[in-house]
Amino acid sequence: MRIQYGTILAATVAAVACAHAAAPTRTHAFRNPAKMEMLRPGEVKPQGWLRDWCVTARNGYISRMDEIDQAFPRAWNRDFHPRGKYLDWSDPSKGAWCTEGGAYWFEGLVRLAWELDDAELKAYATKRLEPLFERMNPNAIAFVYWMDRNDPAQMAEIEKANHGFIVGASGRTTRAMLAYYEATGDERALRALTWCLDDPRFYFFGNPITLPAAACDTWRYSGDDKLAKAIDNFIATKPYPEKWPAMRYALPVRYDHLRMRERRDHEDNRKWNWRLQHGVLCYESMLSWVKASLWSGDGQYLANVRAWLDVHERTCRQPHGVIVADEQFGWAGPNRGTETCTVAGDILLYATLAGVTGEGRFADHVERSFFNAGAACTSRDFMHHVYFQAPNRPTGTGTFHAGPGGTGGLYKTKHWPLCCTAALARILPGYVQWMWMKPAAGGLAATLYAPNTLETELDGTVLRIETKTDYPFNETLAMTVSPAKPLAFPMRLRVPEWCANPRIAVNGDVQDLAVGADGFAVINREWKAGDAVSLTFPMSPKVETMRDFNNGGKPYCSLVCGPILFAYALPEQDENTPAPGARTDWRLDPTRVAADAQVVRTPMPAKWDWPLAAPMKLKTKSSDGSPLELVPYGCAKLRISMFPLR
After folding, report:
1. If pLDDT is split at 50, 70 and 90, which confidence band does 403 have?
2. Is the dihedral of CA 18, 21, 26, 28 positive or negative?
3. Cβ atoms within 10 A of the Cβ of 299, count?
């Protein structure tokens, strides 16, 4: 880690350790409770290949963001207090963009610090949040502690700057603050959250609309009456004004709002209405309506969000799992881009939906997004990233018009705007935390898979479950269950939809278990220390076909195996430059390519960094009979994953 902690560690590590002893519990219930509750940061710790990746992330961006750009040291600090037009994001040196960047970065920083149980990183996360602990007050405008909500002129000043951009950034900062409170029990964090969220006027500032989701989550701990009234006011405010585009997701799908149409690579960008279609803003706003459904008991809000997502799945979803979002969503295609911010937003939203609904299919989606799109966002050393990724990347530059344009496809230390540089910090720590959840009906649920150790308390008993696996690069997982004393509880195990013949055994005895409509198999028994659960999810290569309606409906196919998308990896000079003469004209015959495919596995490398020499490969043939070797999408920085048909 390059940052010099020195006095930071000495001044804060003792306070962090002390606060950690009083982890809070959710004492207030929604009218319509979630089927499963997310755990606190640090209850799930990465192991194996996943820990390798987390340590690389820790030594890369997540501990070094202050070095990356002058904006990051200004994020919510004691001295940077933008006013007037600088409350907007657009000025790179004086604008308030850093408040949004800090929100994204701090969320990943806090979660990873406790997941790795890293004293230095915990101290650093605490130090970065200290200004908000110290300066927040009951008159602040959201987290804008240097302005006064009681001054109408200052409220107008906030709204004038891109309709309250900085309040939207405050809403995203609440996740870092809430994660810190959940990990430590530090009451300063809960107090700051309450002051940020207790004025109903703030709920309609910013795009996206993020404060309602934060208020619902904070109220679970405090039961604060002002928060409850503010949430009720938000939901009751109808009809939803068009100036608040995020409000549309509370309403039934309107196809005219999608404005889907063919887009050519050379098309002028000036006519796009990005506010209605910006991927990450869409997902951030949906979170508030998912939580509003739990709060109010009105299932229609959740149903409407699901309907919007179904449209996205049918029209916009790329084979790596996440929708097209090159500043707007649109038809899927081999050259369309997906913003790194949207990858992070996708994983958070779908993990939340897995918990809210209890449906394993949403967790299937998270794995597809994480193992593919999530891995492709960053370089192997976690110090370069793309702003946009596309399924096919035969060269470093793309044909993206918005954001940083074509250079948004390059792996760089940073891209302006810096949203993706900050948001990539959220992806990996979020997945780690959400691998296990606690069902409302009792017990535990394995929702996402990778090597990990769970340490939690269940019915007053300390419990540890260690999962050893190379999944998704292998088919088997071995869990060792170790309660402090014999403990009866149901363990829910997600069985992926793609798996036709799962095998589940307890202490070597194969279990005859039905997989429910929710995608989970349940083992209900008394567990003793050393009990072993083994899972086998056989993976077979499968072909997925699609058409590129940006190019007259041209047909393509992709190969997947389990949750992994496979790609032809162009030989690299570096992550942005293919070796001379690399072949790019591969075509596939979808009627035979899966039958020709052979899965080849080799031992995992000593250290995991998404190597080009991948431990799992598919060997098949192209339509002209040439041998074709494919690797996991995340291992191929220069690649073809959508192949034209013969």
Report:
1. confident
2. negative
3. 11
What sign does the CA torsion over 520, 524, 526, 531 have?
A: negative
Confidence of residue 399 (pLDDT cuts 50, 70, 90): confident
Cβ–Cβ < 8 Å for 494, 363: yes
Measured N-to-C along each axis, helices 211-222 and 165-184 cross at an angle, to the nearest 10 degrees, of 30
φ/ψ (deg, to 5) at 25: -125, 155
Residues constituting the chain: 646
Q: How many CB atoms lie within 10 A of CB 459?
A: 11
133: how many CB neighbours lie within 10 A of its CB? 16
The predicted-structure confidence for 177-204, as pLDDT tens digits, reads as follows 999 999 999 999 999 999 999 999 999 8
Q: What is the mean pLDDT of the segment spanning 364-391?
A: 98
Distance (Å, whole) CA 351 – CA 332: 22
Predicted confidence (pLDDT) at residue 258 exceeds the cutoff of 50 = yes
H or E element at residue 370:
none
Angle at the Cα of 40 (from 36 to 43), degrees rounded to 5? 100
Closest CA to 370 of 357, 387, 351: 351
Radius of gyration, alpha carbons of the chain: 24
Q: Going from the N-terminus, what domains does the chain have, and what CATH number goes with each?
A: 1-30+69-206+210-243 (no CATH), 439-536 (2.60.40.1180), 541-644 (no CATH)
Task: HSE, CB side, 13 Å, CA atoms: give it for residue 386.
Answer: 33
pLDDT digits (tens, 9 = 90+) for 419-437: 999 999 999 999 999 999 9
List, in sequence order, every beta strand (DSSP E) within 42-181: 44-46
Closest CA to 168 of 93, 88, 263: 88
How far, in Å, CA of 541 to CA of 562, rounded? Answer: 8
Residues 6+ apart with CB under 8 A from 239: none
Predicted confidence at residue 209, as pLDDT, reads 85
Q: Is the pLDDT of residue 588 over 70?
A: yes
Cα dihedral 55/59/63/69 (nearest 10) = -140
What per-residue confidence (pLDDT) applies to 241? 56
Q: Which residue has the tokens 């606060």?
A: 19
- Please give the single-letter amino acid code of residue 600: V
Nearest to 642 by CA among 417, 390, 402: 390
Tell me whether strands 564-569 and 627-632 are parallel, antiparallel or unpaired.
antiparallel
DSSP 643: E
The closest of 101, 33, 79, 64 to 417, measured between CA atoms, is 101
Say which residue, 180 or 237, is predicted with more confidence: 180
Question: What single DSSP character describes residue 317?
Answer: B
| DSSP of 564-622 | EEEEEE--EEETTEEPTT------B-TTTHHHH-EEEE-PPPSS-S--SS-SEEEEEE-
d(CA 96, CA 107): 18
pLDDT (mean) for 329-350: 94
Give CA 385 to chain center in angstroms. 16
**Spatial contact of 451 and 469, defined as CB atoms under 8 Å apart:** yes
pTM above 0.90, yes or no: yes
* Residues with Cβ within 8 Å of residue 8, at least 6 apart in sequence: 123, 124, 127
Q: For 612, how many CA atoms within 13 A lie in the half-sphere containing its CB?
A: 14
CA–CA distances in Å: residue 420 to residues 339, 470, 613 = 7, 29, 27
Helix (H) / strand (E) containing 9: helix 7-20
Are 283 and 309 in contact by the 8 Å Cβ rule? The answer is no
List, for residues 36-92, the tens digit of each pLDDT value. Answer: 999 999 999 999 999 999 999 999 999 999 999 999 999 999 999 999 999 999 999
In angstroms, what CA-CA distances link 86 with 93, 96, 164, 202, 423? Answer: 9, 6, 11, 19, 22
